[in-house]
Amino acid sequence: MDLSRKLAILADAAKYDASCASSGTTKRHSAPTRGGPARGFGSTEGAGICHSYAPDGRCISLLKVLLTNACAFDCLYCVNRASSNTPRARFSVEEVVGLTLDFYRRNYIEGLFLSSGVIRSPDYTMEQVVRVARSLRLDHGFRGYIHLKTIPDASPELISQAGLFADRLSINVELPTDASLKALAPEKDARAVRRTMAGLRTRIEEAQAEKKSRRFAPAGQSTQMIVGADASDDREILETSANLYAGYRLKRVYYSAFSPIPEPSAALPLQRAPLMREHRLYQADWLMRFYGFSVQEITEGGGMLDLRVDPKLAWALRNRGRFPIDVARASREELLRVPGLGKTTVDRILSTRRFRAIRSVDLARLRVSVAKVAPFLKLADHTPSIAALDRERLLEELVPSPRQMALAL
Amino acid sequence: MTRLVPLDGPADVAGWRAAARALVAEGVPPFSVVWSTGDGSANLFGPAPRAAPTPTPASLGPSHPRVPRGFVELAETGLLHRNPGRFDLFYRLLVRLAADRRILDDAADPDVVRAKALAKAVRRDKHKMTAFVRFREISGEAGPHFVAWFEPEHHIVAATAPFFVRRFAAMRWSILTPERSAHWNGAELAFAKGASRADAPDGDALEAVWRTYYASIFNPARLKIAAMRAEMPKKYWRNLPEAPLIGPLIASASRRTSEMVAAVPAAPKKGQRLMPKFETVPAEASTPIDELREEVEDCRACPLWANATQAVFGEGPAEARIVVVGEQPGDKEDIVGRPFVGPAGALFDRAAKDAGLDRSKVYVTNAVKHFKFEPRGKFRLHKTPGPTEIAACRPWLERELAAIRPSLVVAMGATAARAVVGRPVKIGEARGSVIEREDGPDLLVTVHPSFLLRLPDEDRKQVEYARFVEDLRLAAKVAKAA
After folding, report:
1. Cys bridge to A216: A163, B96, B103, B413, which one at CB 3.0-4.6 A?
2. B36 DSSP 8-state letter
């Protein structure tokens, strides 16, 4: 099988993993010091770079491939499950290393995101994955970004090596509850996934605490949950996320709407989860992490988030008694809860209100949608009417009617 | 009097900065300065005489304007914008800042808003250049040479080239743009005049492989064209080797998706070679305690298991004369899977040492084996276990005690005391002496070390710590007698 055919199979097999981040790691570069030779090859700059975008709106930052899509597990939602008829391929270590370097030299990518189906044993699989990273770092002096998937139950020595070479490690919880995982992915052990995450947290924190200690995954760990393959509702999903963020200090939880796959399993009919559900979950995730909302507040209206309206506006409409608030006096926390005000805008408002009484024209200059905030925010030249805030139809007025999806290019 | 200030090209930030400082020091008002870049764009008055005010320290004088650092960064970026009025805007802002250093904080000031918008557009253009430059490999006399053709929107080539040095120092490369070109020979960065598309190579064999990747990583079942175009605007497409695929991939997406949905699931293939089950070999000669430790991991007697990482069982010599019972594992214990390794455990270790209690001869465990907590951002806040959870977990403690048969149980805190005795115990009344019991080992009740950690008052902390050590001395006595 030629390299291109393998790449087609093993990239196709990897695309259901939503993670693409290449940010948040240590800054490294290979520029020479005073007339010397280049030190290694590549760089990382803190912020990630998305080198391309596919028409699915997802960024292409890393060469995201599986080492092999042969797999001993039979997870019903996965195109690579053991019982699937999908074509199989396997890269050699040298092939992945070569592709990564060739793509990187042409500025197509920031680095490599390598995962693998589980073959032979967890340790054997993890070792193959680690060999790619080791070769990139040690044989080629590669200083770009490397994200490795951690195979559950791999030995601590292999995890240490993975953390030494990788910027980020991840291990997917896949489904929000242990019961769902047992039903859809019988070979996967939810408890082993958690123990692995706990082990990663310990090592990441040790490496951060001591400058001299061995490098370990400086860009932290992340995970992914599939949305809509099981019956879990959004509250269960968000509660799981909250526990994962708090317990294992994850950088990100990725949500991936269950989408049709080639070679579906007869045991799991393809029920396509709305992409909007995935989007609302990301919004709710942001509210939890950056806006001070709890899962309980976000889901007090029901276990499923409203697909028509973003969760912050939905919360405000359920809590109209807390509004309007005064832009001149409100605390940072209160302003963060106003629909239409983001974190950056709130900081600008706090800074600006020391100079002037904020009017709607000022908000417009800060690129705030005045129409969206108007019912909730008292300005120097605008006092929202309580009657308006109480209107039954406020939701319909604030939420634009669904537009036809733009297909034109 | 109008002052004509010639600059050395459209990206001459250093020249602007030097001239602007001198002009501010002189008190020249913004409306009487005309900036000229020599490219005709801002030069309304014909060729400018090369007579920029020379900024010498003497001419800057004592009124040398001190501007906030933020302004320097803002100007260095914003001045690279192609907007012809940028030099005027930033000079006006500089004059205003010299009078009032704070105005940059007024995010609704029109000048500040415009300056920030220019800088933001330039930052974005620079970022897109780092993303969308595509090198093509050609062979040169000195080995492979990587050449790219790129069309930036603003005057950013010189400001962005160092990124490519940091990243591709080991290669020879050139980035050609209509206005300016950057060349790196492995040791030095040089700039030359602009080039044309024809000067760049028209292909690279690897682009076919890259297009294979682009087509394969795309998921036709989740078309989001607007999201793609927001981040990868069409104006960049003509220089991206993967862009010709965008149209066909979109066009075939809905057909491919409906085919997937309509496909009748094929008969499952006989599975790949399934992995032999690797049973973890149990440590030889497992003791009753080891068996319990394995069993407790599967305990579902209360819901606490679900959010915890693992059950945390007791630890210590199987023939211990003393068993110390705490409340429940904390954050650290839950992560590591061992009891008494967090801050409260460390305090217990210290107190035990002060009391003369040999820690290595003590078996330590908790009343409740799973961590009860509430997530709060990046942390887990400890929650006290309730009576039902204590009761649900009690059989484990009883089996532990039955296996070890200690002569003394030390219960630290109300939860532990309740778990040992089976009913609520008032610590203040019960502590201070060893209680003999007919139906079990002797009992010593004391406070939980986390109580000491929470005391805000230093004096009180010391008093309570001393009492805690006193209590543990009673246990040490039992240990020595044994």
Report:
1. A163
2. E
Residues B261, B263, B266, B272: is their CA dihedral positive or negative? negative
ipTM: 0.95
> How many Cβ atoms from other residues are within 10 Å of residue B34's Cβ?
17
Pick A407 or A326 by higher pLDDT.
Answer: A326
Write out chain A residues lying below 8 Å of B226, CB-based: 57, 405-406
Domain ranges for chain B: 3-127, 133-199, 207-250, 288-481
| Average pLDDT of the residues in B437-463 | 94
Whether the predicted pLDDT of B65 surpasses 80: no
| pLDDT of B411 above 50 | yes
Residue B267, pLDDT score: 74
Q: Is the pLDDT of residue B272 over 60?
A: no
| Domain assignments of chain A as residue spans, ordered by start | 3-273, 311-398
Q: Where do runs of H (alpha helix) occur along B29-186?
A: 57-60, 69-78, 86-99, 110-132, 157-168
Instruction: Yes or no: say if A171 and A223 are a contact pair by the CB < 8 Å rule.
Output: yes
Residue A408: predicted pLDDT = 39
Q: Is A15 on the interface with B (CB under 8 A)?
A: yes
Pairwise CA distance, residues B294 & B283, whole Å: 11
The tokens 């002052």 sit on which residue? B3
Amino acid at A250: L
Class of domain B288-481: alpha beta
Nearest to A72 by CA among B278, B265, B219, B264: B278
Q: What is the largest CA-CA distance in chain B?
A: 109
Q: Which residues contact A117 (CB under 8 A, 6 or more apart)?
A: A13, A66, A67, A68, A69, A70, A71, A72, A73, A80, A125
In this prediction, residue A402 has a pLDDT band, given cuts at 50, 70 and 90, of low
**Residue B233: closest C-alpha in chain A:** A53
**A-proximal residues of B, 325-344, CB under 8 Å:** 331, 334-337
Mutating which of A16, A53, A189 best tests the B interface, going by the most B Cβ atoms within 10 A?
A53
Instruction: Quote the pTM value.
Output: 0.92
Mutate to test the interface with A, among B114, B132, B150, B219 (most CBs of A within 10 A): B219
Pick the more confident residue, B274 or B340: B340
Q: Check if A366 contacts B (Cβ < 8 Å).
A: yes
Least reliable range by pLDDT among A162-176, B80-94, B285-299 = B285-299
> Would the CB atoms of A39 and B137 count as touching at under 8 Å?
no
State how far the Cα of A151 lies from the Cα of A117, in Å rounded to an integer. 9
Cβ atoms within 10 Å of A186's Cβ, excluding its own = 12
